[in-house]
Amino acid sequence: MDSRAPEIALPSVPAFAMAGRGGVLMTADGEIEDLDADAAGRRIARDLPLVVCMPTVARRLGIRRFAAHDLLELFAFVRPARFCLPTLDGLARAVGLAPAGKPPDPARLPEIAEVLLAELSELGGEARTRAASLAQAMADGGWPWAAPVLKALGEGGSKSRFRGLDAWTRVPEFPDMAPPPPPGSAAVEPVEAADRLRAMLGTGAEEREAQRRYAEGAAHAFRPRDHVDEPRIVLAEAGTGTGKTLGYVAPASVWAEKNGGAVWISTYTRNLQRQLDQELDRLYPDPKLKAERAVIRKGRENYLCLLNFMEAVQGGAARRADIVPLALVARWIEATRDGDLAGGDFPSWLTLLFGSERTTGLADRRGECVFSACEHYRKCFIEVARKKSERAEIVVANHALVLARAVQLRAEESVARRYVFDEGHHLLDAADSAFSAELSGLEAAELRRWIRGAEDGARGRARGLTRRIADLIVGDDDATAALDRVTHAARVLPGFDWLTRLKGENPAGPTEAFLTRLRQQVMARSAGPDNPYGLECETAPPVPGLPEAAQTLVQALDEIRKPLVGLKSALAARLDEETDELPTGERVRLEAAINGIEYRCEAVLGAWMSMLGGVGGPPAEGFVDWFSVRRIAGREVDVGFHRHVVDPTGPFAETVLKPAHGAVITSASLRDRSGDGDDWSTAEARTGLAHMVAPAVRLSVPSPFDYGENTRIFVVGDVRRDRPDEIAAAYRELFFASGGGGLGLFTAIRRLRNVHERLLEPLENAGLPLYAQHVDPMDTSTLVDIFRAETDSCLLGTDAVRDGVDVPGESLRLIVFDRVPWPRPDILHKARRKAFGARRYDDMLVRLRLKQAYGRLLRRAGDRGVFVMLDPMLPSRLCDAFPPEVEIRRVGIAEAVEGVRTFFGVPEASGKSA
């Protein structure tokens, strides 16, 4: 290590901590000033102040983004791939300091900086040299932290061409291995599952009877099947607090060990994936063993692409604005566990600080991978995860990936034999997405880009089909000619600036001509053409010219599909003829190319041509079709033709369940109790089991929690739903009454924003931080993490928050729903109401949503909570969503506020500002 003592030199600038709409400023001389929003905005937009999360500060103060010493950037440099909440207290906790207090003490900011810089000064050897090289590059990029960082490192870096940005050179390669043998068929006995559960819980742990019974019951899914298409299935509803995660991991891990195969555990939310990752530490306490036997799998678009990053560096290192984000990503690449940009160890707030292009946009999102032709193939994060999953015992994935694999990879060896579907109540939603088709401007332009690559000088490295596979068909004149025809024919798909041409009714080519007519029909027939969130209409009867435009487009798409089929046949023939000669890498490329082409021929072009062929008539039996104009906050972004299966659990059962040998489908919210007893038929209908021959084993394990003692439910009858001021006042007083820890759920984004605007100042002034989905510029997972960490904060959100929150303890003690969460009355919902029974279907959806929301209150022993519905129109028949032992009180808002305050023992003055 260098003998020179590094110097810790903090920048001589003000430090600013947010408080309400204003904040507290500490000058460079140590003087403290309380500032309102206007004064703070004028003071901090100069002098490069110390702040935490500059974009959030700017939004709260109502000013433009400004140059600053953002402590998040310093943290990302010093501790890459380490977790930290993007708040002052989050940073303080991460570095081992006490919280900043209320109001926040801005002196905590330089203290955090000093800890991080001191930590940096302790680096030695190659690690110090690489860090210094990056810091020097970042100095050229104008990084405010460069000077103190370089002083802390106390030495210069290497003089390499890319000055440390070439992180791809330091990622280890993954060795090639022989394909694993197929798994065995040994059964897991209930006693084995119970023993494994006991071992994971550890010596001295209190055995929970419900958890043991759950593990023993789940073991049935890990017995060998007796007939083709008749897997062993366990449908398990386990109440909150049962411990179902370890309950199904126990038999799954025993089966994997005994049979040498992998069990795929599938979730719907990233939050549960992360929780599973943590729980697997009990199964594999040795991190090295866990890395070998447990893998987190996500879709390709979630992982950083090393080739994307390399080309961004090669093209962007000379662009001053790109150097800082690329350098921080380079630091992360060297430290990351698996290269996961979405929900892994990548700090999501880097995208908030620098935008997506040089952060999450570095993933492979356009089907452009060249596989083994890529120079980084042997170290590619995606390929490493895929290869590891072939030899793992436990693979944690999500419903979307599991269904996508089943659709795209139909070979027997690609299908998992054993599944656990947690959050099983979302299987219908996942299947609905997986088995639908959409012919839209964005999707068609994406297909053009997949075939032709980047055009019109667009940035990015989108390689066309020719660049990806031309070398695989060298010497095959017919295949080369087919590739040329495909590339030429793809010009009929939307090109650059297609949406402008559609809105101006000046289409170029048959796809744009069809979409222009489609848009005309939507604008003419949908209710409320000024709706900022999108429009839709039925497909029949069509406007004049639309059927003719559809038939013209069918012919044009067929000119793309036919040569693609020829290409697939040529690649398949080579794979077959040279099977004993092909290197592994080239075989992988051929298989990937064949699968990619087949998917686009059948699931994309084939589906589009089928849809277009029926324009003007009724949709195909079992399907529902509609046209739409998609908008985001009033801005038109897409125009499309949609086809969904009325009951998507049918293809889910056929494609995923029947080929499997066993599956556990589980959730705390599977059944719909509708007043006539326990309704398993609802659970079977929503999970695809109604389409199976052999019946599932039904397992019900009640929650150990005493809901009657530890929760309260109020339905408020005197708050006007059409008056935002009254709604906001109700939220304010309820949050004051609970002393924070409140989750506000909304059925419309517009109402959420209205309430947030009215709540922010009074809650912040009372020391109750307020966060909101669709308002705060952070992803939902980060907002939930902040809410979990700050016991007195409040969070507003919509359905994604309702389903994705797992916040035990005092951080979530009150849930307030603005309205009964009736399903959106769109065309798809109309078709399903008709198929499944109008009121019964609507009521089922609402009861399950209420049950899911209410279930957030108690997550562990000792939790207590209150559920408040601000809508007096909640029908009594829907109250079966709640446990029967909990009294549902219909009261006025004053009585509800007093009930919340009394339940939590909060003094009347608590929460309100002086």
Describe what this molecule looks like in 3D:
The protein has 914 residues and is of the alpha/beta class. It is 45% helix and 12% strand. It contains 35 helices and 23 strands. The chain has a seven-stranded parallel β-sheet with strand order 8-9-7-10-15-6-16, with helices on both faces. It has a seven-stranded parallel β-sheet with strand order 19-20-18-21-22-17-23, sandwiched between helices. Helix 8 packs across helix 9 (209-218).
Give a short summary of the structure.
The protein has 914 residues and is of the alpha/beta class. It contains 35 helices and 23 strands.
List keywords for this structure.
alpha/beta; seven-stranded parallel β-sheet; globular; 35 helices; about 900 residues; 23 strands
Q: What is the terminal-to-terminal distance?
A: 56 Å
β-sheet strand percentage: 5-15%
Order of adjacent strands in the largest pleated sheet: 8-9-7-10-15-6-16
The share of residues in helices is 40-55%
Give the total of beta strands: 23
Residue stretches low in confidence (pLDDT < 50, at least 5 long) are none
Rg measurement, Å? 29 Å
In DSSP terms (H or I, runs of 4 or more residues), the helix count works out at 35
The description of the largest β-sheet is: 7 strands, parallel
Shape: globular
Overall pLDDT confidence: 91
Determine the structural class based on helices, strands and strand pairing.
Answer: alpha/beta
